[in-house]
């Protein structure tokens, strides 16, 4: 059975993907919130990336003597080992602080997990036991001034087959959520997943659509409203003409939405790291967390 066909385990864990960026506390807070809502154990994950080769592997024989080269290589090897130990200890300290913070926020049995490798490979390896991944919008090495998304985020969205909660910089209680809806199979799946999960139960629900409420979109919205009402929600529907990105962002502000639910769209052959044009644009601009479903 393919990964895409896997069912999300009802007893799966919430996994917070952490680094030393300014998003770390927010990731922990939203993961703790989700852990409590889902009654799922929280795992705080820190991945130590494999370090690229350093100067210790270079050949200096043409510029220094053999004895000097040997001494230099030994020093470089020891320096690399020290850097590795420091990174590991920093990661452990991060996990200890995260689990304490999560426990104080009501997370279910929070634990820390440190792995070596890449985040994408590690998340894919562990995802069979995961119900929800939580990750910051940007990592510690991203240029914030240019509004770039973290490479780990884009690769993780493409590489895992579980819901992914992309956090904003600071936590705020989730009292109102919105589903970005266009009538497609992807957004219908989003509605079904919201209906089936306890994550957003009893929270004020909104449907946001760009276009005119006629034809296919009207039928899709009627279906979505009925499905949400049957699951106990009382959805408020907003349909506005215009570009989807602008409509969604405008309505998030006007309705004071705390969390947006969207589909993680198909992959582009032209731009290898893009998630989907509307999804990517909103992730870059949106100041609230986004729950990506597929």
What structural keywords apply?
single chain, 294 residues, alpha/beta, Rossmann fold, 2 domains, ten-stranded mixed β-sheet, disordered N terminus
Explain what this protein looks like in three dimensions:
There is one protein chain. With 294 residues, the protein is α/β, with parallel strands linked by helices. The chain has two domains: 11-171, HUPs (Rossmann fold, 3-Layer(aba) Sandwich); 172-294, Rossmann fold. Helix content is 41%, strand content 21%. The chain has helices spanning 24-38, 66-104, 119-126, 151-159, 185-196, 215-230, 244-255, 277-285; strands spanning 13-18, 41-49, 108-117, 130-136, 164-167, 176-180, 204-210, 236-240, 259-263, 290-293.
């Amino acid at each position: 059975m393919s990964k895409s066909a896997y069912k999300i385990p009802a007893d799966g864990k919430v996994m917070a993907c952490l680094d030393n960026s300014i998003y770390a506390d927010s990731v922990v807070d939203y993961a703790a919130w989700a852990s409590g809502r889902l009654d799922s154990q929280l795992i705080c994950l820190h991945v130590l990336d494999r370090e690229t080769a350093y100067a210790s592997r270079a050949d200096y024989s043409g510029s220094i003597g053999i004895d000097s080269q040997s001494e230099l290589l030994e020093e470089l090897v020891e320096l690399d080992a020290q850097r590795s130990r420091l990174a590991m200890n920093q990661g452990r300290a991060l996990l200890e602080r995260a689990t304490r913070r999560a426990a104080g926020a009501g997370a279910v049995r929070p634990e820390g997990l440190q792995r070596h490798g890449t985040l994408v490979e590690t998340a894919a390896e562990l995802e069979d036991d995961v119900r929800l991944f939580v990750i910051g919008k940007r990592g510690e090495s991203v240029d914030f001034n240019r509004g770039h998304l973290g490479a780990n985020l884009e690769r993780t969205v493409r590489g895992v087959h579980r819901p992914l909660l992309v956090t904003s910089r600071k936590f705020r209680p989730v009292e109102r959520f919105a589903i970005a809806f266009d009538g497609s199979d992807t957004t219908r799946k989003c509605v079904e997943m919201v209906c089936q999960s306890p994550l957003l139960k009893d929270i004020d629900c909104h449907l946001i659509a760009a276009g005119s409420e006629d034809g296919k979109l009207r039928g899709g919205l009627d279906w979505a409203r009925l499905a949400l009402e049957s699951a106990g929600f009382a959805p408020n529907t907003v349909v506005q003409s215009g570009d989807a990105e602008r409509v969604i962002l405008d309505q998030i502000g006007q309705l004071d939405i705390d969390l947006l639910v969207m589909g993680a769209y198909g992959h582009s052959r032209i731009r290898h790291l893009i998630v989907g044009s509307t999804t990517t644009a909103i992730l870059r601009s949106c100041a609230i967390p986004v729950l990506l479903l597929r």
